[in-house]
Each structure stands twice: as C-alpha cells, then as structure tokens.
Amino acid sequence: MATPRVQEQAPATDRIARLTSRIASSAGGTTTITAPFTGEPLAEVQTTAASDVHRAYERARVAQAAWAALPPRERAKPFLRLVDAAVDRRAEILDIVQLETGKARKHAFEEVLDVSLCSLYYARRASKLLKPRRRQGITPGLTRAYELRRPKGVVGLISPWNYPLSLGVTDIVPALIAGNAVVHKPDTQTCLSTLWAVDLLQELGLPEDLWQVVVGDPAEIGDAIIDGADYMAFTGSTRGGRAIAEKAASRLIGCSLELGGKNPMLVLEDADLDKAADGAVRACFTNAGQLCISIERLYVHANVHDEFVRRFVDRVGTMKLGADLTFDADMGSLTHQRQLETVTRHVEQAREKGATVLTGGKARPDLGPLFYEPTVLTGVSADMELCGGETFGPVVSVYPFTGDDEAVACANDTSYGLNASIWTRDMARGRRIAARIEAGTVNINEGYGAAYGSHDAPMGGMKQSGIGRRHGAEGMLKYTEPQTIASQHIMGLEPPGGMSFERYSALVAGWVKAAKRFRLR
Fold first, then answer.
1. Which of 264, 320, 309, 292 is nearest to 393 (CA)?
2. Which helix (H) or strand (E) holds 266?
3. In 3D, which of 107, 36, 503 has the Cα closest to residue 284?
4. Contacts of residue 447, Cβ cutoff 8 Å, sequence gap at least 6
5. Which stretches of 6-104 are DSSP H helices?
C-alpha cells in the first residue's frame, strides 16, 4: 500500500524569490511554508498587511481602467497563449503543486488540465458572451433597447489550498477577460502556485498590476479585501462563506461562494460493478479526499451491496501511497495537520461507537507526517460525526438501500448540495434520479469529472454548499453589470397630439390585448 519516498527537489531559490516578489507586501513580514511530504521548510514568503491591501486595490483600479477599454478579443489573447504554455511547462508547476499540497502527481495534473481547458473556453467565447445584445423595446419598431455588459471593476477573490492552481486561476480567467482587475488572496500554504500563474501570464502579455496577490492571515487582511472589492468570489468552508456573504451584503456588493459538501454516490442494482468500484476509488480518494466535490457517502443497492463492497475494498487496499514527484503514487498526503486531526477524530469516534473499518483507518507516519490510509467504513450511524459532517479526507462510509426513493432520500439527507454521482446502465433512469437530487452537479457513471470538466455548463452548490456558479456563461457574466440603453424613435410614450389620456389609455389597453392574441411580444 506504499511506495518508497523519493527525496523531492524544491524549486530553485532564485525562482522562489522571483515569484514571491510579486506579493503585494511592503510591511516586511514573512512566514514559512512547509512541505506536507516531509514537514520541512519549503519556502519563506512575504506577508501582506491591511495597508498593503488598500494599495493593491489602488494599483488594480488604475490598471483596470486601461484594460477594460480593450475589446474582449484583445483581453483574451494572453489566456489563449496560456493554454499552450501551461501544458508545455506542466513539469515545473506539477512539482510546485505537489510540494505545496502533498497530493499525488496525477491529481496535480487535473489542475493543469482544468486551467488550460477553462482558459480556452473563455478566451474563445468571451466576445460572444460580452457583446451588446439587442433587446425588445416597449413599442416594437419605435423603441430600440440594448443590453451591455460592463465589468464590475476590481474583484476580490479568496481561493483555497486544496486545488491552488485550479480554483484560483479558473475564477480569475473569466474575471479578467470580462474587463476586471483582481485582488487575490490565495491560501498562504499554497501561494506559490498562484504566483507561478501570475508570473507566467505576465510573460504572455498580461499587464502589470492587473492581478494583485496578497498573502496573510484572513483575520488581519480579510476585511480589507472585502472593503475594497466591487464583487467577491470565494471558495472554501461554509462557515467562511457565511462570514463573507454577511460582509458583502453590508456593502451591497454581489458575491459567489462555492462551499462545503458531503457528497453522495448511488450504485444502482444494474450498475457495472467493476466500473463503479473503479469510479468510486477515484471519486473518494483523489487528492486524499481533499476535494469539495469528492464522495464521502456511498449508497449501494442491497442486491449488489456485498459484491460491490468486496470489489471496492480490494481496490482500495492495493492503492499505492507515495511522496515522490512521479506518476507512480495513487494517493499522496494530507496538506495540513488540522486535516489529519479531523480525519483521525472522525474515524476513531465512529469506530468507538460501533462502525466497522473495512480497510485503512490509520495514519502512516512512516511515509510522511500527514499521510493517512484510504479508509472505508460500514455501520456508520447518525450519532457519529462522520455521518453528516464534512471530513475532507480519504474516508468514505458505505450504506445499503433497497429502492430509488430511498436512495434519493438518503442522498438529499444533508444540509449540503454540491455534487452527486449515480452508477447505472440505464441512462434514462439515471437522469430521472439525478433530477431529484438536490445538488448543483450530478454525474452519471462518473464521480465528479464529467460535470466539473464540462466548462460550458454551470458548476456550484445548492443549500449550504454555496451561491452563484463558476463555468459556463454565468461564470463570466457574474463578473459584469448588465446595463440597458434604450432609445425612443418617431413618437414618444405620451398621448399623441391633443388625444385625451382616457382615449390614449383605451388604445394602449387594446394594444396589450392584441399583443397577447397575435403573439406580438
């Protein structure tokens, strides 16, 4: 279940110095990033004070005015170049992502793929999404109405540590192409990935100061980020999302929030069990389960429950854990000590209350300080924290069900609603069940990638899993203000000539009824 650890090579010191010089910081504070694989220092980075955040917004506003004056096709050019550059230079960013997060290389590659495909999608579609649109006026032929899309201004963005390249860049790409500037606070632990992307994009033609990076404790700079923003975007915990929503509401600015999940997977009685077991391994243990759309609850039809569990547990038991910068490992490390503590607490509490650990269930300090085995449990009940609380680690609970209604009820029995997965050979049945599940994305015969990777379709949460969407048209248009410009021609909206208003109102009322009858509007 393990591969020998290979001594990782940290990014060159001069490279780190160049990247960290892009942090908006003048206060002189520093903090040390440690490598999850070893617990040893990886890099020392500058930190940002609230005063630095204010200056970052000032610089961003100056840059944004000139940037917004460019047509969308011009703003898209650096991001079209990014598609090739990210793929061609993937080795260096894969190293950085692994060293910052501790994830397996195959899971880091998902981030590169996401950034490239998202950039391609918005760079190609921005002109169409943002172009002025003719709208129907109040009086056909006499009123000409147009809808314009204006950038919000400067977007404040806070991104998490678990997918530092993907969840930062793929929100920033549509915001920038839409004509905004961005003040971005990545998680301190994983800020090198963000700084690599900024550095690369500026090589590719993105203007200086348009993407400002601030690094520091949310308690110290969080308010300053929201106070300066014209719109807020946040990916993280539900608790953090609530706090941001409250502050944004007090300023009457919009926000989009992708928050937590306790995502279900349903294995129907007609599912291909081998494919479902393979899919469950990936859905549950990608990035050691530190993925907001990963599966933590697995519901299996009673007729195939035992056989599915046998195949699934066999696969999980042979997974390779490793801390090397190759594609050999199936799963890497957790990123933070607090995640290891949460995973350990959830599993131990469930075990003490009667749950059965079928495989895994313990930390692996022999591999590294934050490794934990991929773990499968049965017999998890509602009185256990593992049942309803988000674990955000390599742990999944398996439950039987006997019918579609029960499966849907179980899937929806949560305050979250981010992602779900259904496995069946009957696609029509799968889609019918999917439409009943309270989740922003539902995948059929896939755990999470089919929906998340479909960049033309919106992605986000229901219930306590957030508001707003990334991807698709909404993923760009949320960073704009719609403006209507209407002009009146030939005659106005008042009674013509000396017509009385009583006569005029009768004519208008008749016109309204005619419009309905002859489908004029």
1. 292
2. strand 263-267
3. 107
4. 265, 279, 280, 282, 283, 284, 286, 294, 295, 421
5. 13-20, 50-68, 72-75, 77-88, 90-101
* Tens-place pLDDT, residues 475-493: 999 999 999 999 999 888 8
CATH ID of 263-460, from 3.40.309.10, 3.40.50.2300, 3.40.50.720, 3.90.78.10: 3.40.309.10
Q: Write out the catalytic residue numbers.
A: 258, 292
Structure tokens at 188: 């301190």
Token couple for 321 = 């854990």
Give the pair of three-digit tokens for residue 13.
């010191």
Write the CATH number of the domain with boundaries 13-259+473-480. Answer: 3.40.605.10
State the span(s) of the chain assigned CATH 3.40.309.10.
263-460
For residues 405 and 410, give the distance between their C-alpha atoms in angstroms, rounded to a whole number: 9
Res. 291: pLDDT tops 60:
yes
pLDDT reported for residue 518: 82
State the sign of the Cα–Cα–Cα–Cα dihedral 461, 467, 471, 474: positive
CA pair distance 172, 176, nearest whole angstrom: 6
Pull the structure tokens for residue 11.
């990014």
